[in-house]
Design a protein that fits this description.
This protein is α+β, with helices and mostly antiparallel strands and 649 residues long. It is 21% helix and 30% strand. The protein contains twelve helices and 37 strands. The strands form eight sheets. Strands 2, 4, 5, 7, 8, 9, 10, 11, 25, 26 and 27 form an eleven-stranded mixed sheet that branches. A hairpin with a 2-residue loop joins strand 22 and strand 23. The longest helix is centred in the first third of the chain and has 24 residues. It is globular and about 85 Å long.
């Protein structure tokens, strides 16, 4: 305990006889001991327990916190009372038997003192985990986001956002957090996928729904697994053990890194710094700059300039870069056109005629990257300036330098460190009663896709062990992304999707595929509605026993007839159909040489017959096996067929 002032200073004069000083000293010590004992005895609740919280119905749950060692804690609500005794360290945990859906209740927690939690409901609670596609908020722009936010008048949908923090050891408690009922004012900051999922749960089941929002953009699965479980995986054992060395002063490392991060973000976003260089001006010297073609990756803060000549000033012009990753300032003729941040989608800009001039014109670009210090500029076949009826190719003719400004500090994203997010964002809430988990992640693990099945399976089993609860775990299979290539047998995204599908071998797991709703140019597709609906369909199947078809057609077996392969599927419902065109897209066939050829395919009853005129004896078959596959095969519930790859014998 820290004393802000001497509690006796107002009672005892500065000059007094020794006897009075002795009495005063004893009185001071007595009051100090009394205040210390009261501080220790005060009942504390875990941060996740707050007004407006939702507790899981129909299952035994727990409420926990801190109090005086060995003190008795009682939890009372709705004319019921339950109690437990704090342990020697003051930690307590009160178990509450299964309750029916309902509320609002006021929960009173008493020990040496009392804490009250208002407006509590029993309903359905889901943990929404993963990286940026789960984190993506309603206000960050999704399809129809304005209307969704404006109509978010659902006070029985509540969100608890776990603070984004990384830690080198398991934390007993969250640093902050509070439950928030949904309204147009609050919902804009809710995870879009989780909110749309919760809305369906609430409307269809008629109960309060709580979402524990614990996710962080760009993070790999290994960050979310406990150290003990992660060390059981041979591929991750060495890198995990390297982090947990006893001589590492993590407090010092974090402090140094935090300063670097503050300076990095300041500089990346500083218009003043950019303007101070003068590198956007016509008269800036560029004699030591290098010639550059685009698209290209760079380091630190990259400056690029390109001049072009106009015979006359056009009525309007459009400048296309395709992509800028991901902090950028763009000038034309010394006038600022745009400031880009990480939420930007397309680097396409309408240029007002007033910015252009007859004769010499200048494009100046300054770009940095908050994630990796490696900014990227451009996308193939999307680099041009269009004006009147002309289109000027901008893939060449650039001059580049990253010496205009000092290098950006090397900031370490410790949230990507093995177990660091489990320590701070999962461990403190383990045991909070859940209906299940919804999960959208995997993009950050595409570089090691072959390891993902074991890694992801370990995460699911680890969380279930930590909760001591075999809850449903429902995840999103990665959406289509990047430029289409067909066929593309070496796609790491296709391999990761396959690893996700294999994880369905674990009991109580479900998958919502997003293979047909991706965006070629954006890793964050804005159609979150279909993702949420498909997650909810799997939730109803796994957690509520709904018999409706919630899974896309999945490969079951094949039969070879000459050069043709007949492929059979599970989960077809009333039959397979095509959403567009007359033939099935997405199949590729290889012979013994391993070279894949685009295949023709057609639906025959509940199967698909596949063949290629280039392959007389098929040896391998793939469907939707690409970063961005073209797909049109669906079941009667309008769910797309799942990607797969098989060897044919």
């Amino acid at each position: 305990m820290m004393l802000k002032a001497d509690p006796m200073s107002a009672l005892v004069p500065s000059r007094r006889p020794a006897a009075r000083r002795g009495i005063a000293k004893l009185l001071f010590l007595f009051l100090l001991m009394l205040s210390h004992g009261q501080a220790l005895a005060a009942v504390e609740l875990g941060k996740i327990f707050s007004d407006h919280m939702v507790l899981q119905r129909d299952q035994e749950i727990a409420i926990w916190g801190r109090a005086a060692a060995s003190s008795t804690i009682s939890v009372a609500f709705n004319r019921q009372s339950f109690s437990a005794r704090a342990d020697g360290d003051g930690r307590w945990r009160v178990t509450i038997p299964a309750q029916k859906a309902g509320g609002p209740f006021t929960i009173r927690v008493t020990g040496d003192g009392e804490r009250t939690i208002q407006d509590v409901y029993f309903g359905d609670v889901w943990l929404a985990g993963g990286q940026s596609n789960m984190e993506w908020k309603l206000s960050w722009e999704i399809n129809n986001s304005d209307e969704i936010i404006a109509t978010a008048n659902y006070p029985l949908i509540r969100f608890f956002e776990v603070p984004n923090e990384a830690a080198p050891r398991p934390q007993a408690e969250l640093s902050d957090g509070a439950w928030q009922p949904a309204s147009p004012e609050t919902a804009q900051n809710f995870s879009a996928v989780a909110y749309l999922f919760a809305r369906q749960n609430h409307l269809e089941k008629g109960v309060a729904v709580g979402i524990i929002d614990s996710n962080w953009g760009g993070t790999p699965a290994e960050s979310w697994i406990s150290r003990q479980s992660l060390q059981q995986l041979p591929a991750y054992r060495e890198r995990t053990e390297a982090v947990y060395q006893p001589d590492i002063d993590w407090q010092e490392r974090f402090a140094i890194n935090e300063k670097k991060g503050e300076e990095k973000n300041r500089r990346l976003n500083s218009r003043e710094d950019a303007l101070a260089t003068g590198a956007y001006r016509f008269d800036f010297p560029t004699g030591d700059w290098t010639e550059q073609t685009l698209p290209a990756d760079f380091e630190h803060l990259a400056w690029l300039r390109r001049e072009f000549t106009l015979d006359k000033v056009p009525a309007k012009a459009v400048l296309e870069f395709g992509a800028l990753y991901e902090r950028a300032f763009l000038w034309i003729n010394e006038k600022l056109v745009t400031v880009e941040d990480w939420q930007g989608r397309d680097a396409r800009y309408e240029i007002p005629a007033a910015m252009l001039r007859k004769g010499r014109n200048l494009i100046a670009l300054r770009v940095g990257n908050s994630w990796s210090n490696r900014p990227h500029v451009g996308r193939a076949n999307e680099l041009w300036l269009q004006y009147d009826d002309r289109k000027l190719d901008l893939s060449s003719g650039w001059h580049y330098s990253n010496q205009v400004e000092a290098p950006i500090p090397e900031y370490i994203n410790y949230q990507n460190t093995p177990s660091f997010l489990y320590n701070s964002m999962i461990h403190p809430i383990r045991g909070y009663g859940l209906r299940g988990v919804i999960w959208y992640q995997g993009e950050a693990n595409a570089g090691e896709a072959s390891l993902y099945h074991d890694l992801f399976s370990t995460l699911i089993e680890d969380w279930r062990q930590q909760w001591r609860q075999e809850f449903p775990f429902i995840f999103v299979q990665l959406a289509a992304f990047m430029q289409p290539q067909y066929p593309q047998p070496d796609s790491s995204w296709a391999l990761l999707r396959d690893m996700q599908s294999r994880t369905l071998s674990l009991p109580g797991t479900g998958m919502a595929t997003a293979i047909d709703i991706g965006d070629i140019n954006d890793i964050h597709p804005r159609n979150k509605q279909d993702v949420a609906t498909r997650l909810w369909g799997e939730a109803k199947r796994l957690s509520f026993g709904d018999k409706a078809l919630s899974q896309g057609p999945s490969y079951r077996a094949y039969q070879v007839k000459g050069r043709r392969i007949q492929v059979f599927f599970d989960h077809t419902g009333q039959g397979l159909h095509l959403k567009e065109d007359d033939s099935v897209k997405g199949f590729a066939v290889a012979g013994a040489d391993g070279v894949y050829h685009p295949a023709r395919a057609e639906i025959q009853d509940d199967a698909v017959v596949v063949w290629s005129d280039e392959v007389s004896t098929p040896a391998a078959l793939q469907y939707a096996w690409a970063d961005y596959p073209q797909v049109n095969l669906y079941n009667s519930a309008n769910l797309p067929a799942l990607p797969f790859a098989i060897d044919v014998h």
